[in-house]
TrEMBL record:
Protein name, entry field: Transcriptional regulator, GntR family
Region (Disordered): 321-343
Cross-referenced InterPro entries: Tscrpt_reg_HTH_GntR (IPR000524), WH-like_DNA-bd_sf (IPR036388), WH_DNA-bd_sf (IPR036390)
Coiled-coil intervals, chain numbering: none
Keywords: DNA-binding, Transcription, Transcription regulation
Lineage, highest ranks first: Bacteria, Pseudomonadati, Pseudomonadota, Alphaproteobacteria, Hyphomicrobiales
An annotated Gene Ontology molecular function: DNA binding
Length: 343
């Protein structure tokens, strides 16, 4: 393609991008069209731009308008003037091939947006106004659900995922695992209140939300089915959880009047189990089931994040962290392409 043909193509693209009906000044539109052409590689590095007079005549605008647009591009370092030769795209102003892929993908998405707008009767001026006023998508977060037991912690993480956008990542880890290998890239930590202090020590620079947990629906159903005359043994793995567990059982099984509570490894555990009709054990104390005899039943006291606490405590903390400034990092062309593909 000859230089004259190339310049003719450039002028045609610029003319198509400039819309006199818009409230945006023609100089601003012209500068933006040229910047896009350079950034997208449509106007390659080192290529000569049309002369001021030629482009002004093609666009039917004042030469001063074109001259001002060229001057702004020179200030931005995108264009350089050569005495007696004209204006040229600065070497290095055009993108690499991977960056070109990003721009091509972006252009395709812009065209899809224009087509979608036209399908609902939205003209380009209204579309441009909406784009100009649009708020950029807030950043996605990597949230850590930090617990004690692997299976229970993963189940908590699965519940949290249902309350968050798909773009947010919720990962699960135990305290023991985090002590050995601290998860990286965490924006927010969620944990039961009884281990919140430990979580804050492990992640001093990351916000930690201590969540309230309640018995799962299945656990509540099984508690309600306990016969009023049944003798109940309440067994916990952790001493500081025993009182909370007992309070939950009294809340959801207030009809139970005869109960004893102890830790799974307490000296009196066998005696307590021998006197019970129903064993209610916390996650982590599963081994005590093996000591039960015929006619004795067992209920695992499983927890789930309190839906009210999720709405009142977790979601506001998530939104606050989403709005918090994040350190800028260099993004490769491939990273940008992947972000565009994910939308």
């Amino acid at each position: 393609m000859s230089e004259a043909d190339q310049q003719a193509q450039v002028m045609a693209r610029i003319a198509a991008a400039v819309d006199r009906a818009l409230a945006v000044p023609v100089t601003v539109q012209l500068r933006g069209a040229l910047e896009y052409g350079i950034a997208s590689g449509l106007i390659p590095a080192g290529s000569q731009l049309p002369s001021v007079r030629a482009l002004a005549a093609h666009l039917k605008v004042s030469p001063v308008t074109v001259s001002n647009a060229y001057a702004a591009l020179r200030v931005a370092g995108l264009v350089e003037g050569r005495v007696g030769a004209g204006s040229f795209v600065t070497p290095g102003a055009s993108p690499t091939e991977s960056e070109l892929d990003v721009h091509r993908l972006l252009q395709a998405q812009i065209e899809d947006l224009v087509e979608a707008a036209e399908a609902i009767g939205l003209d380009r001026r209204e579309l441009a106004m909406r784009v100009a006023n649009a708020r950029g998508r807030r950043r996605s977060l990597r949230i850590l659900m930090l617990g004690i037991f692997p299976e229970a912690t993963e189940s908590y993480a699965a519940i949290l995922r249902t309350h968050l956008p798909a773009r947010d990542e919720v990962v699960a880890a135990t305290l023991a695992g985090a002590r050995e290998a601290l998860p990286e890239g965490i924006d927010l930590v969620v944990t039961p209140r009884n281990v919140q202090a430990e979580a804050q020590r492990l992640f001093p620079a990351v916000p930690v939300v201590g969540m309230t947990f309640i018995p799962t629906e299945q656990t509540r159903i099984e508690l309600a089915r306990i016969a009023p005359e049944a003798r109940v043994a309440i067994v916990s793995y952790f001493a500081d959880f025993l009182a909370l567990m007992r309070a939950g059982i009294l809340r959801f099984a207030p009809h139970v009047s005869a109960s004893e509570a102890c830790l799974w490894d307490a000296p009196e555990i066998d005696a307590v189990l021998g006197r019970c009709d129903v064993l209610i054990y916390a996650t982590g104390a599963e081994s005590v089931r093996e000591r039960l005899g015929p006619g004795q039943n067992a209920i695992e006291y499983r927890h789930t994040p309190d839906p009210h606490a999720i709405r009142a405590e977790l979601l506001p903390a998530v939104e606050a962290q989403r709005e918090a400034p994040t350190p800028m990092k260099e993004t490769s062309g491939e990273d940008s392409r992947q972000q565009l593909v994910r939308g």
